Amino acid sequence: MISKVLKKLFGSRNDRLLKTYQKNVRLINQFEPDLERLSDEALKSKTSEFKERLASGETLDNVLAEAFAVVREASKRVLQMRHFDAQLLGGMALHEGKISEMRTGEGKTLVATLPAYLNALSGSSVHVITVNDYLANRDAQWMGKVFEFLGMTVGVNLSGQDHDQKQSAYGADITYGTNNEFGFDYLRDNMVFQKADKVQRDLTFAIVDEVDSILIDEARTPLIISGQADDNTELYKKINSIASKLKRSETEEEDGDFTVDEKSQQVVLTEIGYENAEQFLSAGGLLTDEGSLYDPSNISLIHHVYAALRAHNLFNKDQHYVVQNQEIVIVDEFTGRLMSGRRWSDGLHQAVEAKEGLNIQKENQTLASITFQNYFRMYEKLSGMTGTADTEAFEFQQIYGLETVIIPTHRDMIRDDKMDQIYKTSKERYDAVLNDIKDCYTRGQPVLVGTTSIENSELISSLLDKAKLPHQVLNAKQHDREAEIVAQAGRPKVITIATNMAGRGTDIVLGGMPADSDEDGEWQKRHDEVLDLGGLHIIGTERHESRRIDNQLRGRSGRQGDPGSTRFYLSLEDSLLRIFASDRVAAIMERLKLPEGEPIEHPWVTKAIENAQRKVEARNFDIRKQLLEFDDVANEQRKVIYEQRNDLLDSIDTVDMVAGMRDGSIEDLVDSFVPQGALEEQWDVPGLEKALRADYTLEVDLSELMEEATELEPQNIIDEIKDKAQKFYDEKMVDAPGDAVQQYERSVMLQSIDSHWREHLAALDHLRQGIHLRGYAQKNPKQEYKREAFELFSLLLQTVRNEVTKLLMSVRIRSAEEVENISREKPSVSAVAYNHGSAQEVNQPNGVGTKVKADTFVRSQKKLGRNEPCWCESGKKYKHCHGRLG
Question: What angle do CA 395, 399, 403 make, to 5 degrees?
């Protein structure tokens, strides 16, 4: 009650905002006469004048009124289009980082030129984002004329462009493009190995057209880049044959090629084993006569040899796995159940396939992914335009922090929105639809029939074919002709069938878009004829789950004060009514005892349907909110990983990073053999010396230190090993030039981060799939997901640190050239697919759509905390035993 009184006294929040904007509109209109008198050159020079004013300390708000006036004047001269006052209001809302709700036909494309120009004056990137390539290209060429007249550069970011084209597009003052392409470019930029390979600039300001479609309808399906590792089938086969020739040694003292530690699931080559492995690899053509397994270019061979040895000596058929249908199926060692569809990582699964003589399958992994929600929230300032945002205003505010401003129409709307007609069966409903279409066609009134699916659009098309009524169908199958079909949908006697989302962004002009072939007055005659017939008639064949989608369909008619009419035809068999409202509506129809074919029209029924839609909207909002809560966990981790990558790409000197990783790895290793707080008698110093030799090829004799020190602490051992490791590494790298070494170090770190991040994404996906089961144990699934995801991430960072240290300490540098060669190599993946959600088809290079499914991560032990004792009873912490890199 109090809120209503306050609203009446002071107006709504929307009213107060519009009142503030109106002051600027009056200022803009005052600039118009003076600007009209300027020559083209004088008008163009305003851009440099604004930039100078900003450089001298003025803000964008200081120059807003005059800048908007300049854009309006340029548009009048170049496009013969003048911004209405309502469009100026919309432009101000966008500049302030709000959502501008403007009815269909109010000229949202033109509105975007105002804030885009103003914000581009500061030199920051401005991205104008649309739903498809056609609209992005059209708007860039169309509105680009205004920007170019004023001395601004315009780029367009489309799918299929090469690296140089994309860099050029992003280098422009204002860049048009699609939501998918901007998101994929961000992910690709965080997979590059050279800073120069990035294409995007900072994410400063974005104007999202059809913002409800992009930030709400598409928010539940993430952008995913997936791909397959290089085909190394022959390599796995050759190394498998080599692994079977190497001799196992039960103890270090015995002559043998490798030792096996079954407790820690590790295999270690002896010195003799390294020499024999090198001979076998050379004989197999995998290693040159002068080459060594320690050479930088052969680091991956060591990885494959170890994987093959583990497959032969630690993983047994019918114990750890079975062979079914010519595939390896993992056996859960705790439950004994088969884990179909799961694969071991790090090349182990392929090594087992090679051991069993099966076809070696390439790993298909998620390389990178992000939701639109988290991508767009990275922009410093985000704004959007749509004709239907008010119903979702709460979600925009809560998820994105975006306030919705409803902009009044330029002309009053006179469209007649008729009440819904509800029938008992679908057949009765389609009969009524057909009769309505026939009536309009007979009178010459253009009709747009909206459907909720391609299947329904084709059903109505077949009914119209039977009735011999000419029509055109607009759905995903006619995507290329979309603009052409929509442009002519307002002509007399034209019947157009469209799925609800098709054709957005293109206005339906009464009388059709003027054509070059039209004679003088021909279009005006058609236009007047349609006006007299009542404008465009919209028929909805079913209510959508969301009121917003229904409003979008209605909004196709009655643009800029034109006449128009809309009606929805429903049946009790529609999924929305069947699930949410059928009992109430059916009861009303039963009481009225309506004969077959007779509809019901009543405000109560319409209200019941709207309530059903609200229920669905609330459920969908909860789903999107839950998705975001889970993705926020991955997003924070994504930020850390991408920040590390960017630090590596930006860094000139990698010495501190390498030393930091090495020191951390040494501390982890020492802690597992010489735990803090343990008695000296409990220390496993020989085991530590053995691990240093195996992991870092580092010979350290700690006996002298043990004898000399009166009070020895684990920290003394850590300091000794760090000192020896630093000297060992410096001596090894002394022959190679510093910049080549740092490039090699950078390459090793980036490859390790990328490889384990991919596995981590799969691990998070697997964790999310089963996390709801925690609810049965009276635990909060969201909290458990956050906790376990954090543990996985901590393990990821530790694994990267240990792997990088192992690789750099094990490598042998013999010349500067080999360092430079290996540092230039980049890991490659094949069949890279860009996928918006796992349910959609992706475009392969050959043009064939295939569904790409990332392999699911498999945890081979039950989930343990990083610092808990390992399940194998080795006495070590899990993170230093089975939680370590193999």
Answer: 65
